[in-house]
Fold this sequence. Notes:
TIM Barrel
Amino acid sequence: MADIATNARTVGFKQGERNVFFHLLTACNLNCRHCYINLPQHGSETLPKKTALDWLKLFARPDRESNLILLGGEPTLHPDLAEIIRSAKSMRYTVTVDSNGFLFHDFLERATPRELDFLSFSLDGPDPSVNDPIRGEHVFSTCAENLRKAVQAGFNTSVIYTVSNLNIDHLHRMPPLLAEWGVKRFFIQVIGMRGKTARGDDRKQISWQVDPGHWLRVVPQVAKEAANLGLHVTFPKVFLEPAETFECAGLVAENYFIFPNGRVYQCPLCEDYPLHTYNIKDHKLTKHEGINEDRFFPLSIPEGCVMNKLLQPDNIEYLADGTPRHRISCCLLKQEIVPQSG
Ligand code: SF4
Ligand code: SF4
């Protein structure tokens, strides 16, 4: 096939764009080895529908581009998810649901492709032998089957693949599979050292983080191949080129990560700690007092992202003179390739 993909472009933080990542609950039917949920920090509540709608109103700005990503735990375990989506659309959000693929409560029958902008499925391998040791037995087959049903029912679908040392060498097998299934978007993510990867039982046995050379050899090339097959691909920047400017999303963008216990973070790397910028209390967004994540955002260090240096320093390499080989970008900075054939 002719190479039709353009080169990846870094998607700078867009003026005025808002991303609201809303964890409606933390319960999940799966037990992934890299699960980022941390119950003592995030709570174990399932938000009642009324509270969920109140909180959506708090963050709604109908005059601005506001992306709402509904998450869990597993969001389709929420019995009122379809109604929450409907209400969010009436508040002018662009709505995505990130599911592990089990689609509880007859989700495909209760939501409609007109109301839901994207339905995202998490898969961490191109077959059960790669995916299931990470996400659980029989997860690949259920997720793949429901994904195909969703495509058939007319939903815009995307797949999220979290890259770690356990699956990076299988990433190249994803694009043909996704193209065959009719998936529109492919989100490649990098493993974050939070939740179980930072605290789980097997954190000492598994070296999750991919070294920079390996990442740079594999990910941009696979992204290009996926775009050549017609997929819109997004992947994290991670390593900044010398001429590129470092920017912290906490200073230049609007991102809210909302948990059912009312914590609201601006930086996902901080989610294992009580460093959230805001709390939702009595249906109001209030500043969380004390030294929190926002106090770290303006700090300038040669390694780039301060929180990365503090919380997951193993992805930083140093030269003999002690300077970092790369600066680490904000984890929210993305690159994308949009296929020219559209
Ligand atoms: S599907 Fe998501 S919430 Fe559930 S165990 Fe896996 S990573 Fe955690
Ligand atoms: S990941 Fe780093 S750069 Fe991005 S918001 Fe968090 S602290 Fe700022």
